[in-house]
Design brief:
32% of the residues lie in helices and 22% in strands. The radius of gyration is 20 Å and the shape is elongated. Helix 4 packs parallel to helix 5 and helix 6 packs parallel to helix 7. The chain has two domains: 143 residues, Rossmann fold, CATH 3.40.50.720; 106 residues, Dihydrodipicolinate Reductase, domain 2 (2-Layer Sandwich), CATH 3.30.360.10. By secondary structure, it is of the alpha/beta class.
């Protein structure tokens, strides 16, 4: 079951499930077109697949997995409700707090169901995070620049926040730049996370891009990842779906599924 089938990510997820031999699309969830088929909406893939208005209605079709590619508010509600209904959720939205994750982890363990929350499904972006952690042990002066399309609602991106959090686990907190520096324009130095600066760019023509820049004595190191289209996220969606069907408990971040 896919929630958010009209979005760019949702459309790619529909194509993914359709082409995978071990997956079957049992329906989609869309609040505007409940009671129709995807083909009848004329805004989705031309498939004779039912559209449900709510997750509770969709649950009657007994899906094994819910792929939610909606928005943070809906994603939170769907993840909790999916677990309550015995459905394994794969959620690709951000905005989950530590308290949210703790509560949902307990629920997943109680229900003995697998669940995944992924701020980013791109395998390359996950490798960027892991390589950044490795580099930060030796080059603790670091700044993050993330670029996305101008329709993105949150800033910094979930990927940038996750990257900073992972780096902070191996980097002592501390400010960077001149101790007396001043911003002539507020925000010029970006957001601050334990002394690391995080910068967000929003422009048409962008998809999802991030670079992590490390500075050291006489040298710099830049690790960069670019998603050029939404198809780049589908191998990670597939990995998450396969994981939740054979596991129990909540995983936050695909980096926990990659050695």
């Amino acid at each position: 079951m896919i929630a958010g089938p009209r979005g760019n990510m949702g459309r790619e997820a529909v194509k993914l499930v359709q082409r995978e031999e071990n997956m079957q699309l049992t329906g989609v969830i869309d609040y505007k077109f409940g009671g129709m088929t995807m083909q009848e909406t004329e805004t989705m893939e031309p498939l004779q697949i039912p559209v449900y208005e709510t997750l509770d209605e969709a649950a009657e079709n007994k899906p094994d997995v819910l792929i939610d590619l909606t928005n943070p508010e809906t994603g939170k509600k769907h993840l909790r409700r999916a677990l309550e209904l015995g459905i394994r959720p794969v959620v690709g939205t951000t905005g989950f707090t530590d308290d949210d994750i703790n509560v949902l982890s307990e629920l997943a363990e109680e229900k003995e169901l697998g669940a995944v929350i992924a701020p980013n499904f791109a395998i390359g972006a996950i490798l960027l995070m892991k390589l950044s952690v490795m580099a930060a042990k030796y080059m603790p002066n670091v700044e993050i620049i993330e670029q996305h399309h101008d329709r993105k609602l949150d800033a910094p991106s979930g990927t940038a926040m996750k990257t900073a959090q992972m780096i902070s686990a191996v980097r002592p907190a501390g400010s960077q730049g001149h101790p007396d520096e001043e911003e002539a324009w507020q925000g010029a130095r970006g957001a601050d996370y334990e002394g690391m600066k995080v910068h967000s760019v929003r422009l048409p023509g962008r998809v999802a891009h991030q670079e992590v820049i490390f500075g050291g004595e006489g040298q710099t190191l830049t690790i960069r990842h670019d998603s050029l289209n939404r198809a780049s996220f589908m191998p990670g969606v597939k990995m998450a779906v396969e994981h939740v069907t054979v596991s129990a408990g909540l995983v936050y971040g695909l980096e926990n599924l990659i050695d």
